[in-house]
Each structure stands twice: as structure tokens, then as C-alpha cells.
Amino acid sequence: MTYTTMSYEDIKKELSNKDIQIEDIAKAKRVSNSHVANVAKGVVQSFVIAEAICLALNKKRTEVFGDKYLTKPKRGPKDRSHRRSEVIKAIQAGKPVPDPSMNLPAN
């Protein structure tokens, strides 16, 4: 399936037609105006901001950004409990914190 991408000008125009400004989205997501504008322009990627723009336009991500945000990007490991425990134990014991590559937990 081929998706089309809205231009920045089209995004701004549709937002304006709905009396929504880039600044409104930025304030709602607690980011800078330029960050929202850069996502809308396609200069940077942010799933969270792209989703906010789509909500403001009442459109699907594919209608606004094409195939750029078809899947949510994977982030780094969420579970740092082992490493956090290792750091806390070392500091509480008055010992140097071991290098993170030394005792990696088994996956």
C-alpha cells in the first residue's frame, strides 16, 4: 500500500482551519514549538509528537505522515532493576561501582 505524506504547509493549514496552533500542541506535550514544527516538517522523528499532531487533525498517522510511523520504535531496555541494584549496593558498601559490561544479566 502506498501512503502519501502531508506537507508542513498542509498540516499548518488544517490546524489553522481547526483553530489549533503548533504552540497548543507543544504546550500540551511540554516540548518546544520548534520541536513540534520539526516533527511536522519531517526534520526529526517523534512518535509521541506525531501522534499528538494526528489527534489535533483527527487523522490517522498514515494520513499525515505516510509510512514513517507505521510501527512504534523500540527503545532501549526498560528493566534497569539489576543495574540499579548493583549501583546501590556498591555505593552503600563504599566500593567502586563495577563497570556495567562486567556482570550483565542473562537474557
UniProtKB/TrEMBL annotation:
<feature type="region of interest" description="Disordered">
    <location>
        <begin position="71"/>
        <end position="107"/>
    </location>
</feature>
<dbReference type="InterPro" id="IPR010982">
    <property type="entry name" value="Lambda_DNA-bd_dom_sf"/>
</dbReference>
<protein>
    <submittedName>
        <fullName>Uncharacterized protein</fullName>
    </submittedName>
</protein>
<dbReference type="GO" id="GO:0003677">
    <property type="term" value="F:DNA binding"/>
</dbReference>
<feature type="compositionally biased region" description="Basic and acidic residues">
    <location>
        <begin position="71"/>
        <end position="87"/>
    </location>
</feature>
